[in-house]
Amino acid sequence: MGLLPFIPDARPGSKKTSMRIFRICKILFICAKYRLDRMLPASHVPVWFRLVLSPLKILPGPEQSPAVSLRLMFEELGPIFIKFGQILSTRRDLFDDETSNELQKLQDQVPPFDSQLARKVVEDSLAQPIDDLFDNFNDSPLASASVAQIHTAELKSGEEVVLKIIRPGIEGVIKKDLQVMHLLASLLLRIWRDAKRLHPQKIVADYEQTILDELNLQLEAANTNQLRLNWNQSGKLYVPRVYWDYCRQNIMVIERIYGISSANIEELRARQVDMKKLAHLGVEIFFTQVFEDNFFHADMHPGNVYLDISDPSNPTYIALDCAIIGSLTENDKSYLAKNLLAFFNRDYLEVARLHVESGWVPPDTNVIEFESVIRSVCEPVFQKPIKEISFGRVLMSLFQTARRFNMEVQPQLVLLQKTLLNVEGMGRQIYPDLDLWETAAPFMEKWMRERVGLTGIFKKISANAPMWLEQLPEFPQLAIDAMTELKALGQNNKKQTKLLTELNTELAAQRRQKTFSRLGGFALVLALFGTLLPATGLASQQDAMVGASVLGSLGIYWMFIKP
């Protein structure tokens, strides 16, 4: 049966199962082809794993470096893996410069699909010849990403625009990879006892929804428009205009913007951009999106974040590619804000208490012990610039803490965690001396004051007042209805109590009847035995008959007469 017992709803020989197993084999083959074992550290690798990989050493090594091999592997494996590489490209604390630079090429150097095919997609979707819709449509793509590619053009009215076009056939490829991810999540649950608290199946399901949403450009257009409305008058973040008449599920047309990539650090320095101000502004934008707007750009790698440096002393941000947008519930935001403030204030006891209160750790967790462990992990981090902090080691320490206290990964926060990694990666590149705690703490304190203080109470009252006023005329009738329902509920309770009492009485009578029936049966058996006593010589005929008659009478009485 092989892997079949681990595959949900798998049937031997089924096409779906065969496709999944084939994809897994292909992934392993591609990793072997590029000899990614060259990237493994010489130490900290289990002996059994080195033995499994040892046959690869007889294969010829690729001519390119391990860093280039890693990028080529992601490109060959397809969109989902390319996106994973995009996330890794922001983590320069995890890789050397060569590897980070190679992974960064995944942002805009994915091989494009044929421009004639792009033209056909546009014409089929908009039901008009492309020359009737646009002027100067550029067949050479401006950028080519994992899911779509970008072409420039002009509207007939003269506005410069960019067209985002979904890669034809990409949905089928993505769904195959998602099937493999679901399989791997199921396998992980079966073979690793710690996997349950990580919710791998829920995480894969959330990621599936996210990646499939990227295929719907109507949804991305709506996200772009909403983000534009949120920041249109801020002077801090610019979001391009959406041209709705030209948008379909597989095509989106937006305003063309000009700026510089946030990854082009050399150009920023050459133009004497205020890097400190830029980094602080990025932190402010992120926390505002999360806690005030509850609508945050969740794919903030450098390829999606550009800068307007026309005024180097007052730089601003430009947001692109709003396919992935995150939001949190009010409870999640509240607990997250309280946790962050407690961290900033080094109140580790409060952090531990909040984790228990929110259900992130089991209710029987020893709070004092948990506080001590959190302190040992986080205390070395504070009051250090980002360049002196290895968040990779911090995350590893927190993961070990999670294992010790059975902390469960919160699937609803996974998207936010990924965004935080992106923000931290860009912050490290733009201004390595950024003190994240110093920048974020005042913002969080202000937000909490506005939420729970007098200002917050007044805002809530103001927001709810129209609804309360609308319902005020109905309040007397609602009160009468509530009293009527309470009275009816009381009467029903009395009836139910009476029925329960009668039922208990009936059950008791049935139990007594059953007991007496058993006694009667026993008495009849004794009566029968009494009639046989004279034959044994243990009693006279007369005594035996008298005893049998008495016992038989009692048996008949208990079984058939006594209620």
Q: What would you say this structure looks like, in words?
A:
It is a single chain. The longest helix has 62 residues, at 475-536. The chain has 563 residues and is α+β, with helices and mostly antiparallel strands. The chain is 60% helix and 7% strand. A hairpin with a 3-residue loop joins strand 2 and strand 3. It is built from 21 helices and eleven strands. Strands 1, 2, 3, 4 and 6 form a five-stranded antiparallel sheet that branches. Residues 1-13 have low confidence and may be disordered. It folds into four domains: 4-106, no CATH class; 115-273; 330-452, no CATH class; 475-561.
Biggest sheet layout? 5 strands, antiparallel
Helix content: 55-70%
Shape: globular
Distance between the termini: 64 Å
Would you count the extended β strands for me? 11
Strand residues, percent:
5-15%
Any idea what the radius of gyration is? 36 Å
Short description:
The protein has helices at residues 15-33, 47-53, 66-77, 79-89, 97-104, 115-126, 130-133, 170-191, 200-213, 217-231, 265-270, 275-293, 330-344, 348-357, 367-378, 391-404, 414-430, 436-452, 454-471, 475-536, 541-561, and strands at residues 134-135, 143-144, 148-155, 160-166, 237-238, 251-255, 260-261, 296-297, 305-308, 316-319, 325-326. The chain is an alpha+beta fold and 563 residues long.
